[in-house]
Input
Amino acid sequence: MTFSSRSDNKQPQRHGRQDATANKRGEHGNSGPDLQDAGSHAEAVKSAGHSSAETDRASKQSQFTPSDWTRTLAAYRQPIPSRSVFELTITLAPFVALWAVASWALSISTALAIILALANAAFLVRLFMFQHDCGHGSLFRSRRLCDWIGRVIGVLTLTPYDVWRKTHALHHATTGNLDHRGVGDIPILTVSEYQDKSRLGRAGYRLIRNPVFLFGVVPFYTFFLQNRLPVHLMRSGWRYWLSAMGTNLAIGLSLMTIIWLGGWDVLLFVFLPTMFLAAVTGMWFFYVQHQFEDTSWQHDGDWNIQDAALHGSSHYALPGILRWISANIGVHHVHHLASRIPFYRLDEVIRNHDVLAQTKRITLWESFRCARLHLWDEQRHRLLSFAEARALSA
Output
């Protein structure tokens, strides 16, 4: 999303240093606390009866730098075409079927139709994750095939594919960089930036970070309004306007067909509940993936894209059904290290590399606390709540 506290859309400066933060290993490098914990976990693996070779490998991997992990993860990049087709089929078919059943249920009970529509949001979230993989060229080997599948799904998700792909690429290129906030991220201020704002500015930021606003108003604004016009890419060429206008035309024709076949009730009690809940869910996932207590934010001089990928992205360890619905997007640190890995191979990565399974791990229960975090503390290198920041300045 482009809803941000800054309007600066500068292109990120690329840093080629793989070990640019070597003097800060205790915070962001190969001996950071999360990887040290994973190394300690390796010793526990040994005592649990695992082979010495497995334990030695885990101990060695606990010392890996982010660039080491990037090279290791390259082995998982190849998509499996039959698996991709299968995953698409078992998601799209139930989505269409449940939509039809919910529309039919309106003749029996509006409440039942709404319940079915809300359940169908799970399949729409999953379809958005397929669009996400298409944007990275990881669902199929053919870039062209990925793009056209992504464009079709973009009509269902109200998200113009080429516009989203551009802004999402900027998100990957600038994640965790304090000097390049503003595109494809959630607004975040440092403690000092917040303190320097006027009373009105602080109130505005508090509104933006309020969970009701962030997970209620912003999803509606993003998917129903902002996606209709690529204003933030106005100077980036006609391609993005064509993507937005083409998607808008297809959405308009789809909505007219829905009204023609099922009437306004289908639009109000099936289409809108499905879309809105899917949008809220997607916003929550995106939030938790980068807005957690020990995430990583750095200025240009200290920022490195691989360090930011591993240390600024969470491993959202979800129950099985939620992993399926979200297409493993919770394994986000691995995704940022190697975005060409198909979603259905991320589980394989975690099974084969326990160090990564334990790195930046957040459970479902722990994730709810993340909604209370608002400001980045540059001295303590962690996200704080407004109350914590106020206590520090008292």
In short: The radius of gyration is 22 Å.
